[in-house]
Write a structure and sequence with these properties.
By secondary structure, the protein is of the alpha+beta class. It contains four helices and four strands, in the order βαααββαβ. The protein has a single domain, classed as Molybdopterin cofactor biosynthesis C (MoaC) domain (Alpha-Beta Plaits, 2-Layer Sandwich), CATH 3.30.70.640. It has a four-stranded antiparallel sheet with strand order 2-3-1-4, with helices on one face.
């Protein structure tokens, strides 16, 4: 698959094929997810050609070093943290259209998850592939955020301090690393 950049997402506009269009320069008059009256709408992508598409997103969760060690040693009381988070990430990818209002339901052809454990954090990268009329970066982002939320849920009992708070725990640096598009 080529590394040709594309504009937009699965909630993208039909104007994404304009190579000179830069979404950061869009004005209110150019917004495609609103009607002239200001109502939100889903963009019609029906006339766009199918393309092979891939997006990769990443993020990380800060944890106590003892929690990371418990995850490495599979000593977390709720079970296998990373296996559970992987399932959660994949489920989130498949259901993005249900939680992001203007996303299209797209055919997911592949989801890759990659966890990297550091001394005090876990990074998760999620790669999503589809063949269709719209991109899949929102799906990759949903996979990352849900996967990291599942990690938090699995370890919250050991991450809480004496007051029931999470001073050392945080989800950070969620971002899209790459988008690719190639005509099918």
């Amino acid at each position: 698959m080529s590394e040709t950049p594309e504009e937009g997402s699965s909630a993208e506009s039909a104007a994404d094929d304009q190579s000179s269009a830069d979404s950061s320069d869009a004005t209110a008059d150019e917004l495609t997810h609103t009607t002239d009256e200001g109502d939100v709408q889903m963009v019609d992508v029906g006339d766009k050609p199918d393309s092979e598409r891939r997006a990769v997103a990443a993020g990380e969760i800060r944890l106590q070093p003892s929690t990371i060690e418990a995850i490495r040693e599979d000593q977390v009381g709720k079970g296998d943290v990373l296996a559970t988070a992987r399932v959660g990430a994949i489920q989130a990818v498949k259901h993005t259209w249900e939680t992001i209002p203007m996303c299209h339901q797209i055919p997911i052809t592949n989801v890759d998850t990659d966890f990297s454990l550091g001394d005090d954090r876990i990074e998760l990268q999620v790669g999503v592939e589809t063949t269709g009329k719209t991109g899949c970066e929102m799906e990759a982002l949903e996979g990352v955020t849900t996967g990291l939320n599942v990690v938090w849920d699995m370890v919250k009992a050991v991450e809480k301090d004496a007051d029931g708070q999470y001073p050392d725990t945080g989800i950070e640096n969620v971002r899209v690393l790459a988008k690719e598009k190639e005509r099918a």
